[in-house]
């Protein structure tokens, strides 16, 4: 099924559109349709999101709640098809959905300023706050155990037993570093078991490029990429912001010495997050802010190393050992966050 055939399933009229691919993210295929009105057309990766109807159901439940309680808040839900469905399925079974394009907005791929860090963090926190009164039973996990550190360590252990001798030798130093942080798994287990964390609707993928900024003022406009909108804990969202905001370079960098923790960015994002969540989080939850960054950095290092040991079957790679370099870089950042740098 061609893009034009998919487009015709949505109520877009007969006007012509210029189609431009958007190369962002590892998971979905995204296109901008530019015409009299512009839109974002996206193919959801069914190999990652095994139950795409759950993704659509969660987003619709959140949209309905926000529309009822705060209709002025911009929540970017999908446009239904001409038959009233949330998505269109192509011949290969991949679901497609359509979103409005918000004019005069931009995304950024790297945090450059304290203002960006503050605004993005407050934007993600605001979404959680807006959904604070929603019925959690209306939401389901779109990826099971997505940020469950215990399970991710089990996957790492299993990959280690199956990996080829060559891959284990190449990754030996990174493997040892991963194993040295196993105490974070036990702390995570204790934190979850304690009941000190409240389950809330979280974004669960809080990279800076999942916020739309006003192109002129650079204020946050709305949160995007809601595929992982589901029940979770604040440590997932705040921790992922710490992981992805504080270093001036990301996990793709070849020179590990470029990885540093910018304390001013760290402080700004925490301040931004608490500007919305301070009255909602308990004191015990606030005491886990530092742990959140370490935990989420560790979980991504584990996932990237696991993929390398498994033969690079999950994350897209463009050169040999890319996942190993990604894992090494995440663990270097973890060293710095944990005070071991």
UniProtKB/TrEMBL annotation:
<keyword id="KW-0418">Kinase</keyword>
<dbReference type="InterPro" id="IPR002575">
    <property type="entry name" value="Aminoglycoside_PTrfase"/>
</dbReference>
<keyword id="KW-0808">Transferase</keyword>
<dbReference type="InterPro" id="IPR011009">
    <property type="entry name" value="Kinase-like_dom_sf"/>
</dbReference>
<feature type="domain" description="Aminoglycoside phosphotransferase">
    <location>
        <begin position="19"/>
        <end position="253"/>
    </location>
</feature>
<dbReference type="Pfam" id="PF01636">
    <property type="entry name" value="APH"/>
</dbReference>
<dbReference type="GO" id="GO:0016301">
    <property type="term" value="F:kinase activity"/>
</dbReference>
<protein>
    <submittedName>
        <fullName>Ser/Thr protein kinase RdoA involved in Cpx stress response, MazF antagonist</fullName>
    </submittedName>
</protein>
<dbReference type="InterPro" id="IPR050249">
    <property type="entry name" value="Pseudomonas-type_ThrB"/>
</dbReference>
